[in-house]
Specification:
This protein is mainly α. It has 2 domains: 209 residues, Rossmann fold; 80 residues, Tyrosyl-Transfer RNA Synthetase. It is built from 14 helices and 5 strands. Bound molecules: adenosine monophosphate and tryptophan. Tryptophan binds next to strand 1 and helix 8. Adenosine monophosphate binds next to helix 1.
């Protein structure tokens, strides 16, 4: 049976990119196998964050998970920090990753290349080690993520091969599962940049008011020319909107483009906004209800208990394999 695991870090307000690239798909795995979805709160500490903001973001992600259709009877939903085995496994596995490979990680380079070494925390450098531990702790073979996380999953695979070569068949080889439509949603104000929780104009936040979402889409940067066509190179803005539309309607951006061959940019954008709001308004309503009811609290508590039970089995196996005394 498949073991599926993914997580989102509570560093900021979730965006439409998170929704399309990751969140929206988690529920599709529920009937395929055993699913573990967590809030990567330890990962959120890798860059400075206000404690109250971190707590509130974590609550929000729990509610978003439930609003997206994850059913706690089928999926184990939990906070990473409430399962100490993540940190314990990391203490072991970090010894099987090397400085050279961590330095090559795109996310690390993006976030830290302009920073002075004396300002770069050890945690952000070692991030892929904790992420590998998150995955390997549950014997996960499938890891649904957006494109930007594939490199980290690949590194976890290298680690598994290295570890198993030395100690025998202990860890399960994971594979990134990247959605076909919307693996990389770009900023609406600068379609050469990823939509990434940090640009109030170019990012659509899942908590944005519907009127604000419509306005952001209507003022999205478009390209020269006037024809709606899918051409990432020459029409990055329009292509991004076609990808968003396609993700909402479960069609490819090329198919979406065919629906708008005779449309003007303005009319096309209106339809994109309608499609996004058709999906996000009911999602926001579910989120609101869940947040107010406080039901997510018991979900997280039970989830952590289940996660600890599963995680402790694999942790013990690893501890034994490397030679820690367990009698
Ligand atoms: P993060 O916000 O970095 O914790 O990302 C959570 C999940 O959302 C990961 O699977 C990312 O790959 C995915 N994701 C983040 N930004 C985007 C984006 N702009 N387009 C598609 N997927 C994304
Ligand atoms: N690194 C992921 C991100 O930034 C979040 C994450 C942490 C994760 N651990 C994971 C995703 C394990 C999948 C599996 O998006």
């Amino acid at each position: 049976m498949d073991r599926i695991l993914s997580g989102i870090k509570p560093t900021g307000s979730l965006t439409l990119g998170n929704y399309i690239g990751a969140l929206k798909h988690f529920k599709d795995f529920q009937d395929q196998g055993e699913v573990f979805i967590f809030i990567a709160d330890l990962h959120a500490l890798t860059l400075p964050i206000d404690p109250e903001v971190l707590r509130e973001n974590s609550r929000d992600i729990a509610c978003f998970y439930l609003a997206s259709g994850l059913d706690p009877k089928k999926t184990t939903i939990f906070l990473q920090s409430q399962v100490p085995q993540h940190a314990e496994l990391n203490a072991i596995l970090q010894n099987y990753l090397y400085m050279g490979e961590l330095k090559r990680m795109t996310q690390f380079k993006d976030k830290c290349s302009k920073m002075n070494d004396s300002a770069i925390g050890l945690g952000i450098f070692a991030y892929p080690s904790l992420m590998a531990s998150d995955i390997l702790l549950y014997d996960a073979n499938k890891v649904p993520v957006g494109e930007d996380q594939v490199q980290h999953v690949e590194l976890a695979r290298d680690l598994v091969n290295r570890f198993n070569h030395r100690y025998g068949d202990i860890l399960t080889l994971p594979k990134a599962e990247v959605t076909k439509i919307g693996k990389r949603i770009m900023s609406l104000s600068d379609p050469s940049k990823k939509m990434s929780k940090s640009d109030p104009k170019g990012d659509i936040f899942l908590k944005d008011d519907p009127a604000v979402i419509r306005k952001k889409i209507m003022s999205a940067k478009t390209d020269s020319g006037s024809e709606v066509s899918y051409d990432v190179e020459n029409k990055p803005g329009i292509s991004n909107l076609l990808t968003i539309y396609g993700a909402m309607k479960d069609i490819s951006p090329e198919e979406a483009a065919k629906l708008f061959t005779n449309s003007r940019y303005g009319d096309f954008k209106k339809e994109v906004a309608n499609a996004v709001l058709e999906e996000l308004i009911p999602f926001q309503e579910r989120y609101q209800k869940i947040k107010e009811s406080g039901e997510y609290l018991s979900v997280l508590k039970e989830g952590a208990q289940k996660a600890r039970d599963v995680a402790s089995v694999i942790l013990k196996k690893v501890q034994h394999a490397v030679g820690l005394l367990d009698e």
